[in-house]
Amino acid sequence: MADKIFRVNMSDLSTTVEEVPAGWMGLGGRGLTSTVV
User: Fold this and answer.
1) Alpha carbon distance 8, 28 (integer Å)
2) What is the mean pLDDT of residues 13-32?
3) Is the alpha carbon torsion for 36, 19, 28, 23 positive or negative?
4) Which end of the chain, N or C, is less surrounded by CB atoms within 10 Å?
């Protein structure tokens, strides 16, 4: 599993890289995207 989250702000075309929170480590697929959104 990846250990980074890449966030892209489409308003100003900037990016940030974050560590995956410990509570998200067991999530994948729909569970992960539902948690992020």
Assistant:
1) 20
2) 87
3) negative
4) C
User: Distance between CA atoms of 7 and 18, rounded to whole angstroms?
Assistant: 8
Identify the pLDDT of residue 1: 53
User: Using alpha carbons only, what angle is made at residue 5 by residues 20 and 17, rounded to the nearest 5 degrees?
Assistant: 110
**Tens-digit pLDDT profile for residues 2-22:** 688 899 999 999 999 999 888
DSSP percent split of the chain into helix, strand, coil, nearest 5: 25, 30, 40
Taking a C-beta distance cutoff of 8 angstroms, is the pair 35, 24 a contact?
yes
Domain that holds residue 9: 4-36
Amino acid (1-letter code) at residue 3: D
